[in-house]
Automatic annotation (TrEMBL):
<feature type="region of interest" description="Disordered">
    <location>
        <begin position="87"/>
        <end position="112"/>
    </location>
</feature>
<feature type="compositionally biased region" description="Basic and acidic residues">
    <location>
        <begin position="87"/>
        <end position="102"/>
    </location>
</feature>
<protein>
    <recommendedName>
        <fullName>YtkA-like domain-containing protein</fullName>
    </recommendedName>
</protein>
Length: 140
């Protein structure tokens, strides 16, 4: 093969590789924030997942009572499960109190795109446990 053709093929290969690498990347992670509501025992628990991707997210829970007043409580734990994965894909995160009625933490608990289920276990000021269930989809 002539030297000119080899050089041309080399440049073509380099351009193809560059396009392939830049096309496989993190900038496609624009799935969008997820906001969910669940009600149990007269309490409403709003769950926000930001940025709503497979990977590291920030999880914020806000609790209000049936008069829409903020409730703080004694503790909150968020459980993560991918129902289609049987025993795999399960984790949990204890949330830290941020404001009067807000709990928050970050972490890589949503590991892949697909259907997910989260359960919030929240303990009110009297020590009573309340469970809230959320179903959502993480897109690719």
């Amino acid at each position: 093969m002539p030297k000119q053709q080899m050089k041309w093929l080399g440049w073509l290969g380099a351009i193809f590789l560059l396009l392939a690498v830049t096309g496989c990347g993190g900038s496609d992670k624009k799935a969008g924030n997820i906001e969910l509501q669940a009600t149990q025992d007269g309490y409403q628990a709003k769950l926000e997942i930001k940025p709503g991707i497979a990977g590291v997210n920030t999880y914020t829970v806000t609790i209000t009572n049936d008069q829409a007043q903020a409730e703080s409580g004694q503790g909150a734990v968020l459980h993560f499960e991918m129902p289609s994965m049987d025993t795999h894909g399960k984790s949990e995160k204890e949330l830290k109190k941020k404001k009067e009625a807000s709990w928050q933490e970050s972490g890589p608990h949503i590991m892949m795109p697909g259907e997910w289920q989260s359960t919030l276990e929240w303990k009110d000021d009297q020590g009573k446990d309340h469970t809230f269930l959320y179903n959502y989809e993480i897109k690719e």
